[in-house]
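Project outcomes to date are best conveyed with an example. Our students and postdoctoral researchers have been running inverse folding experiments weekly, and each run begins with a structure described purely in tokens. The record below, which covers 316 residues, was selected by the lab manager from last quarter's runs and is presented without edits.
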């Protein structure tokens, strides 16, 4: 190594020693830089406007289901998506029918929906409403048919309709009143028809009195229809005709003892004229040594009757 190299090396060592000797002193004597005043950082929530979401969430937060990953991490297997089982279609059909007051169709559709999802409260409520609608519709039908039968004086048919309504709801006032009214008028009409069908009964004084009381009862009932009015008129004519006596001529031989049932013993005569009310009569003749005779005849209102012969002619 030459002397030039040694000289350069000595110079570097000397400079380095000077730096180590003077650096601490220079650092301690150098003035400290001024500290800038501290500025409080503004709150993030106060300095920034709220961030609007770019998209609306598809579900409310409390309705969101766990993701498959979260469910598996929590120890649960995720439910598979529910297939379209026709529930929504059945409910749509049911609600449409309910709005149109087609309660039978609505009930059938609600039953299908309930069978698919028995736990669905809407299906149960809808089924109840449909059945209530059907019930009210049926009651209205019974009421209308009952009133129509009353108008036609089909009293027993009207009573039946009101019975059907009461079977659905025993508290229905119109049905209770209609049943009572129809039953009373049906019985009245049946009594009138019976009297008209058996006019011969009116030859009996008690039956005639019964028919007279029935006429008073029928005339006192309000709401007289053409059937009852016609029946009252016919019965009134019968009562009047059976109350009017008719002449009956009985011919005998002065030897025969004559008795007329319902009238009494007439005795022996050759001819006798009586006034009797219309009806069926039996005359009996008796004579010692002769066979008794029995003669039946009917006195009809307004119809003249030929003389009745009562005489015993067959010797025994």
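After processing, the design step wrote out the following sequence:
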């Amino acid at each position: 190594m030459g002397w030039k190299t040694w000289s350069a090396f000595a110079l570097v060592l000397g400079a380095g020693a000077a730096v180590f000797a003077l650096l601490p002193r220079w650092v301690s004597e150098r003035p400290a830089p001024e500290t800038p005043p501290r500025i409080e950082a503004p709150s993030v929530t106060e300095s920034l406007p709220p961030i609007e979401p770019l998209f609306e969430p598809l579900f409310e937060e409390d309705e969101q289901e766990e993701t498959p990953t979260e469910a598996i991490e929590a120890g649960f297997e995720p439910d598979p998506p529910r297939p379209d089982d026709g529930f929504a279609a059945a409910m749509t059909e049911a609600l449409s029918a309910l709005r149109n007051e087609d309660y039978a169709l609505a009930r059938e559709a609600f039953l299908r929906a309930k069978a698919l999802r028995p736990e669905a409260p809407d299906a149960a409520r809808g089924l109840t409403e449909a059945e209530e609608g059907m019930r009210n519709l049926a009651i209205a039908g019974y009421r209308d048919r009952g009133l129509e039968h009353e108008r036609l004086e089909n009293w027993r048919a009207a009573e039946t309709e009101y019975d059907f309504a009461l079977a659905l709801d025993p508290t229905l006032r119109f049905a209770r009143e209609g049943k009572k009214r129809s039953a009373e008028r049906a019985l009245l009409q049946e009594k009138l028809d019976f009297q008209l069908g058996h006019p011969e009964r009116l030859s009996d004084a008690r039956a005639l009195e019964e028919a007279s009381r029935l006429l008073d009862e029928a005339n006192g009932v309000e709401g007289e229809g053409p059937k009852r009015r016609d029946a009252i008129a016919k019965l009134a004519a019968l009562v009047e005709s059976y109350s009017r006596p008719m002449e009956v001529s009985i011919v005998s031989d002065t030897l025969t003892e004559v008795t007329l049932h319902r009238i009494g013993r007439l005795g022996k005569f050759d001819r006798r004229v009586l006034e009797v009310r219309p009806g069926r009569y039996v005359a009996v003749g008796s004579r010692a040594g002769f066979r008794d005779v029995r003669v039946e005849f009917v006195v009809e209102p307004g119809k003249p009757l030929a003389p009745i012969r009562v005489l015993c002619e067959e010797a025994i």
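The longest strand covers residues 290-299. The chain has ten helices and seven strands. The training component of this project remains on track.
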